[in-house]
Amino acid sequence: MAHLKTIASYMDLPIAELARARLDAEGIYCYLANRHMISIDWSYSNALGGILLQVREDDEQTALEIISEDQSSVLTEIEDTFPSIEAEDYCTRCGSANLDYYNIDKKFGALSLLLGFPIMFFFRKRYKCNACGHIMKQ
To answer: Could you tell me if residue 78 is inside a domain?
Structure first.
């Protein structure tokens, strides 16, 4: 039975999961030690030495080569497929692109219960600008 060897340490679970998924895709068995403990409380990450990516001793060199490969060209290809920003993606007052969905469902849902008929369909989606606080219909 082959022993596991730590080849990398990560402070954040998402980055560790990406490395694990990359090795799994190549058919290399790997294990994330301390994953569950750090996912419960991230402040344990420093005390435990981070999330440890472990592989079999036989696969150590191959795994190191795989996780050290530069994948930035794949990211560039993905970014090219994103849709361009439309005019309605900006705040009409200040021009900021920092918008969030504004949830009015709770307010009007309670009002609908009081009135006895649904009034939600009269209201369209609304967005709130995080920069200036302006609420917009879209």
So the answer is: no
Kindly state the tokens that stand for 109: 């849902």
Within 8 A by CB and 6+ apart from 40, the residues are: none
Look at residue 79 and tell me if it is in a domain.
no
Band the pLDDT of 30: cuts 50, 70, 90: very high
Asked if 29 and 18 touch (Cβ cutoff 8 Å), the reply is no
Burial 52-69, CB ≥16 within 10 A → b, else e? bbbbbeebbeebeebbee
How does pLDDT run across 77-121, given as a tens digit for each residue? 776 776 665 656 788 888 888 888 776 666 666 666 677 666 555
**Residue 34: how many CB atoms within 10 A of its CB?**
19
Q: Which of 107, 104, 108 is nearest to 119 (CA)?
A: 108
Same domain for 57 and 8: yes
Structure tokens at 30: 């790997």
pTM of the model: 0.54
Which H/E stretch holds residue 31? Answer: strand 30-33
Per the structure block, which two tokens stand in for 136?
Answer: 């917009």
Q: Do 97 and 85 meet the contact criterion of CB atoms below 8 Å apart? A: yes
